[in-house]
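Let us work through a complete example step by step.
Step 1: write down the sequence.
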Amino acid sequence: MSSDQQIPPLVQEQLAKLQQTQQNLLIKSNKKDLIEELDEKKELANTKASLLTKQEERLKITLKEGETKIQEMIKNQSVAGTQQPQNDETRK
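Step 2: predict the structure and record it as tokens.
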């Protein structure tokens, strides 16, 4: 800021409060603890990903089986529908 522009007192007070809040928010942790925590989170995420992959595979198999059953039902209905019932004259 130039010398002509000064920060109003109200803004200065708000800045001071903000700086105090920022200082209070600083969390002290050592590098080792942070790395261990991140490794645990990574392992958990990998486990979840593996589980979701297995669930996806099972779901695909189930859907494929359902699709096959539906296709068989449709095929059986169309085969049954193409067979003409014999009328009384052809039976004699």
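Step 3: interpret the result. Residues 78 and 84 are 12 Å apart (CA to CA).
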